[in-house]
Amino acid sequence: MLRSKKCLVTGGSRGLGLAIAKRFSDEGATCILMARNREKLEAAREQLATAAEDGALLRHNIVVGDVQDFASKDYGKGVLDDVDVLVNAAGITQVSLLVRTSPNSIKSLVQTNLLGTIYASQAFARNSIRARKGGVIINFSSALAHRPVPGSSIYTATKAAVEGLTKALAVELGPANIRVNAISPGYIETDMTSAISEKAREKMMDRVPVKRFGTVEEVAEVALMLAMNEFMTGSVVNVDGGWSV
Protein backbone atom coordinates (compact mmCIF):
# COMPACT_ATOMS: atom_id res chain seq x y z
CA MET A 1 0.00 0.00 0.00
CA LEU A 2 1.12 3.53 -0.72
CA ARG A 3 -1.22 5.23 1.73
CA SER A 4 0.43 8.26 3.33
CA LYS A 5 3.19 8.17 0.70
CA LYS A 6 4.00 11.15 -1.51
CA CYS A 7 5.02 10.46 -5.11
CA LEU A 8 6.40 12.86 -7.71
CA VAL A 9 5.89 11.87 -11.34
CA THR A 10 7.74 13.81 -14.03
CA GLY A 11 5.97 13.76 -17.37
CA GLY A 12 2.82 13.31 -15.32
CA SER A 13 0.33 15.17 -17.49
CA ARG A 14 -0.31 12.31 -19.92
CA GLY A 15 0.58 8.83 -21.12
CA LEU A 16 2.65 6.57 -18.91
CA GLY A 17 3.27 9.21 -16.26
CA LEU A 18 -0.43 9.93 -15.75
CA ALA A 19 -1.33 6.23 -15.74
CA ILE A 20 1.24 5.59 -13.03
CA ALA A 21 -0.04 8.51 -10.97
CA LYS A 22 -3.59 7.14 -11.27
CA ARG A 23 -2.50 3.69 -10.12
CA PHE A 24 -0.54 5.11 -7.20
CA SER A 25 -3.53 7.25 -6.28
CA ASP A 26 -5.71 4.13 -6.25
CA GLU A 27 -3.37 2.76 -3.58
CA GLY A 28 -3.75 5.88 -1.45
CA ALA A 29 -0.70 7.89 -2.49
CA THR A 30 -0.66 11.64 -2.83
CA CYS A 31 0.80 12.51 -6.23
CA ILE A 32 2.66 15.54 -7.52
CA LEU A 33 2.48 15.80 -11.30
CA MET A 34 5.27 17.64 -13.09
CA ALA A 35 5.25 18.76 -16.72
CA ARG A 36 5.70 21.91 -18.79
CA ASN A 37 2.07 22.50 -19.82
CA ARG A 38 -0.14 23.94 -17.06
CA GLU A 39 -3.41 23.30 -18.89
CA LYS A 40 -2.63 19.61 -19.38
CA LEU A 41 -1.47 19.33 -15.78
CA GLU A 42 -4.71 20.83 -14.47
CA ALA A 43 -6.71 18.37 -16.56
CA ALA A 44 -4.60 15.50 -15.26
CA ARG A 45 -5.09 16.57 -11.65
CA GLU A 46 -8.85 16.58 -12.17
CA GLN A 47 -8.61 12.96 -13.28
CA LEU A 48 -6.73 12.07 -10.11
CA ALA A 49 -9.19 13.66 -7.67
CA THR A 50 -10.63 10.76 -5.72
CA ALA A 51 -12.05 10.05 -2.29
CA ALA A 52 -9.93 8.11 0.17
CA GLU A 53 -11.44 5.27 2.20
CA ASP A 54 -12.04 7.56 5.14
CA GLY A 55 -13.95 9.98 2.92
CA ALA A 56 -11.23 12.65 2.87
CA LEU A 57 -10.27 14.08 -0.48
CA LEU A 58 -6.77 13.28 -1.63
CA ARG A 59 -5.07 16.45 -2.74
CA HIS A 60 -2.88 15.97 -5.78
CA ASN A 61 -0.56 18.83 -6.68
CA ILE A 62 1.05 20.02 -9.89
CA VAL A 63 4.42 21.54 -10.69
CA VAL A 64 4.86 23.44 -13.94
CA GLY A 65 8.49 23.05 -14.87
CA ASP A 66 11.18 21.23 -16.80
CA VAL A 67 13.24 18.34 -15.47
CA GLN A 68 16.32 20.46 -16.18
CA ASP A 69 15.22 22.69 -13.31
CA PHE A 70 16.38 20.02 -10.85
CA ALA A 71 19.95 21.04 -11.67
CA SER A 72 19.35 23.88 -9.20
CA LYS A 73 19.83 22.71 -5.60
CA ASP A 74 17.23 25.15 -4.30
CA TYR A 75 14.63 23.95 -6.81
CA GLY A 76 15.06 20.35 -5.75
CA LYS A 77 14.64 21.20 -2.07
CA GLY A 78 11.30 22.87 -2.66
CA VAL A 79 9.69 20.45 -5.10
CA LEU A 80 10.88 17.22 -3.50
CA ASP A 81 10.15 17.94 0.16
CA ASP A 82 8.74 14.80 1.83
CA VAL A 83 8.58 12.88 -1.47
CA ASP A 84 8.89 9.11 -0.96
CA VAL A 85 8.79 7.89 -4.58
CA LEU A 86 10.25 9.58 -7.66
CA VAL A 87 9.06 8.40 -11.08
CA ASN A 88 11.21 9.75 -13.91
CA ALA A 89 8.66 9.39 -16.72
CA ALA A 90 9.45 12.58 -18.65
CA GLY A 91 10.89 11.85 -22.05
CA ILE A 92 10.88 12.66 -25.74
CA THR A 93 11.35 10.39 -28.73
CA GLN A 94 13.20 10.45 -32.04
CA VAL A 95 12.17 9.46 -35.56
CA SER A 96 15.13 10.44 -37.72
CA LEU A 97 18.35 8.92 -38.99
CA LEU A 98 21.48 10.21 -37.28
CA VAL A 99 22.73 11.94 -40.43
CA ARG A 100 19.48 13.93 -40.55
CA THR A 101 19.19 14.74 -36.86
CA SER A 102 19.94 18.35 -35.94
CA PRO A 103 22.27 19.33 -33.09
CA ASN A 104 19.31 20.91 -31.28
CA SER A 105 17.33 17.66 -31.48
CA ILE A 106 20.30 15.69 -30.18
CA LYS A 107 20.73 18.14 -27.32
CA SER A 108 17.03 17.99 -26.41
CA LEU A 109 17.02 14.18 -26.37
CA VAL A 110 20.06 14.01 -24.10
CA GLN A 111 18.87 16.79 -21.82
CA THR A 112 15.36 15.45 -21.32
CA ASN A 113 15.85 11.69 -21.34
CA LEU A 114 19.21 11.41 -19.61
CA LEU A 115 20.23 14.63 -17.86
CA GLY A 116 16.70 15.24 -16.59
CA THR A 117 16.69 11.78 -15.02
CA ILE A 118 20.13 12.40 -13.52
CA TYR A 119 19.24 15.81 -12.07
CA ALA A 120 15.91 14.68 -10.62
CA SER A 121 17.49 11.56 -9.10
CA GLN A 122 20.32 13.61 -7.64
CA ALA A 123 17.93 16.09 -6.03
CA PHE A 124 15.72 13.30 -4.68
CA ALA A 125 18.70 11.42 -3.25
CA ARG A 126 20.02 14.54 -1.54
CA ASN A 127 16.67 15.22 0.11
CA SER A 128 16.16 11.60 1.15
CA ILE A 129 19.64 11.24 2.61
CA ARG A 130 19.27 14.53 4.45
CA ALA A 131 15.95 13.40 5.93
CA ARG A 132 17.26 9.86 6.58
CA LYS A 133 14.02 8.40 5.27
CA GLY A 134 15.02 6.27 2.28
CA GLY A 135 12.91 6.18 -0.85
CA VAL A 136 12.30 4.77 -4.31
CA ILE A 137 13.38 5.93 -7.76
CA ILE A 138 11.72 4.47 -10.86
CA ASN A 139 13.38 5.32 -14.16
CA PHE A 140 12.30 4.69 -17.74
CA SER A 141 14.38 2.91 -20.34
CA SER A 142 13.00 1.45 -23.58
CA ALA A 143 12.99 -1.84 -25.47
CA LEU A 144 14.98 0.07 -28.09
CA ALA A 145 17.92 0.00 -25.68
CA HIS A 146 18.02 -3.76 -26.30
CA ARG A 147 16.76 -4.02 -29.87
CA PRO A 148 17.33 -0.71 -31.69
CA VAL A 149 15.75 0.19 -35.00
CA PRO A 150 16.85 2.71 -37.65
CA GLY A 151 15.94 6.29 -36.81
CA SER A 152 16.32 5.95 -33.05
CA SER A 153 20.07 6.15 -32.47
CA ILE A 154 20.22 9.08 -30.03
CA TYR A 155 17.04 8.03 -28.22
CA THR A 156 18.44 4.51 -27.89
CA ALA A 157 21.71 5.86 -26.51
CA THR A 158 19.92 7.93 -23.86
CA LYS A 159 17.83 4.96 -22.73
CA ALA A 160 20.82 2.62 -22.58
CA ALA A 161 22.53 5.24 -20.43
CA VAL A 162 19.51 5.38 -18.12
CA GLU A 163 19.85 1.64 -17.55
CA GLY A 164 23.51 2.07 -16.60
CA LEU A 165 22.58 4.95 -14.31
CA THR A 166 19.87 2.85 -12.66
CA LYS A 167 22.24 0.02 -11.80
CA ALA A 168 24.99 2.33 -10.59
CA LEU A 169 22.62 4.31 -8.38
CA ALA A 170 21.17 1.12 -6.91
CA VAL A 171 24.66 0.26 -5.66
CA GLU A 172 25.50 3.81 -4.62
CA LEU A 173 22.23 4.63 -2.84
CA GLY A 174 21.43 1.22 -1.36
CA PRO A 175 23.17 2.00 1.96
CA ALA A 176 20.86 5.02 2.30
CA ASN A 177 17.82 2.74 1.86
CA ILE A 178 17.02 4.21 -1.55
CA ARG A 179 15.98 1.61 -4.12
CA VAL A 180 16.46 2.34 -7.83
CA ASN A 181 14.85 0.36 -10.65
CA ALA A 182 13.84 0.96 -14.25
CA ILE A 183 11.02 -0.07 -16.57
CA SER A 184 11.80 -0.85 -20.20
CA PRO A 185 8.54 -0.57 -22.18
CA GLY A 186 8.00 -1.75 -25.72
CA TYR A 187 5.26 -0.45 -28.00
CA ILE A 188 2.59 1.07 -25.76
CA GLU A 189 -0.77 2.60 -26.71
CA THR A 190 -0.45 6.32 -25.95
CA ASP A 191 -1.42 9.58 -27.60
CA MET A 192 1.98 9.55 -29.30
CA THR A 193 1.38 6.15 -30.93
CA SER A 194 -2.28 6.67 -31.84
CA ALA A 195 -1.39 8.19 -35.22
CA ILE A 196 0.58 5.15 -36.39
CA SER A 197 -1.01 3.60 -39.48
CA GLU A 198 -2.33 0.04 -39.47
CA LYS A 199 0.29 -0.97 -42.02
CA ALA A 200 3.07 0.39 -39.82
CA ARG A 201 1.57 -1.32 -36.77
CA GLU A 202 1.55 -4.67 -38.52
CA LYS A 203 5.22 -4.30 -39.39
CA MET A 204 6.05 -3.30 -35.83
CA MET A 205 4.16 -6.29 -34.43
CA ASP A 206 6.36 -8.64 -36.44
CA ARG A 207 8.93 -8.08 -33.68
CA VAL A 208 6.51 -8.71 -30.77
CA PRO A 209 5.51 -12.27 -29.78
CA VAL A 210 2.15 -11.24 -28.24
CA LYS A 211 1.23 -9.37 -31.46
CA ARG A 212 -0.24 -6.25 -29.86
CA PHE A 213 0.67 -2.95 -28.27
CA GLY A 214 0.76 -2.82 -24.49
CA THR A 215 -1.41 -0.51 -22.40
CA VAL A 216 -0.33 2.24 -20.04
CA GLU A 217 -2.22 0.41 -17.29
CA GLU A 218 -0.02 -2.67 -17.77
CA VAL A 219 3.07 -0.53 -17.35
CA ALA A 220 1.57 1.20 -14.31
CA GLU A 221 1.10 -2.16 -12.57
CA VAL A 222 4.83 -2.81 -12.90
CA ALA A 223 5.62 0.65 -11.52
CA LEU A 224 3.40 -0.09 -8.52
CA MET A 225 5.24 -3.35 -7.91
CA LEU A 226 8.59 -1.58 -8.05
CA ALA A 227 7.37 1.07 -5.63
CA MET A 228 6.23 -1.54 -3.10
CA ASN A 229 8.64 -4.49 -3.38
CA GLU A 230 11.35 -3.72 -0.85
CA PHE A 231 13.79 -6.36 -2.12
CA MET A 232 14.01 -5.08 -5.68
CA THR A 233 16.76 -2.69 -6.66
CA GLY A 234 19.08 -2.41 -9.65
CA SER A 235 16.55 -4.18 -11.88
CA VAL A 236 15.41 -3.27 -15.38
CA VAL A 237 11.98 -4.79 -15.98
CA ASN A 238 10.99 -5.43 -19.59
CA VAL A 239 7.33 -4.70 -20.33
CA ASP A 240 7.43 -5.22 -24.07
CA GLY A 241 5.34 -8.25 -25.00
CA GLY A 242 8.52 -10.25 -25.55
CA TRP A 243 10.11 -7.86 -28.02
CA SER A 244 13.48 -7.97 -26.27
CA VAL A 245 13.62 -11.79 -26.18
Query: What fold name goes in the CATH topology slot?
Result: Rossmann fold
Low-confidence sequence ranges: none
Q: Supply the helix-strand structural class.
A: alpha/beta
Large-scale geometry: globular
Major sheet: size, sense and barrel closure? Answer: 7 strands, parallel
In total, the number of strands is 7
DSSP strand content: 15-25%
Number of separate domains? 1
End-to-end C-alpha gap: 32 Å
Report the CATH architecture: 3-Layer(aba) Sandwich
The spatial strand order of the largest sheet comes to: 3-2-1-4-5-6-7
- Gyration radius from CA atoms, angstroms: 17 Å
Q: What order do the SSEs take from the amino end to the carboxyl end, as H and E?
A: EHEHEHEHEHEHHE
Percent helix among the residues?
40-55%
Overall mean pLDDT: 93
- Which superfamily, in CATH terms, is the homologous superfamily? NAD(P)-binding Rossmann-like Domain
CATH class, named Alpha Beta
Concise account of the structure shown:
Helix content is 41%, strand content 15%.
How would you explain this protein's 3D organization?
- This protein has 245 residues and is an alpha/beta fold.
- It has one domain: NAD(P)-binding Rossmann-like Domain (Rossmann fold), CATH 3.40.50.720.
- 41% of the residues lie in helices and 15% in strands.
- The protein has helices at 15-26, 38-48, 73-79, 103-131, 153-173, 198-205, 216-228; strands at 6-10, 30-35, 61-64, 85-88, 135-140, 178-185, 236-239.
- β5 (135-140), α5 (153-173) and β6 (178-185) form a beta-alpha-beta unit.
- α1 (15-26) crosses α7 and α4 (103-131) packs parallel to α5 (153-173).
- The longest helix has 29 residues, at 103-131.
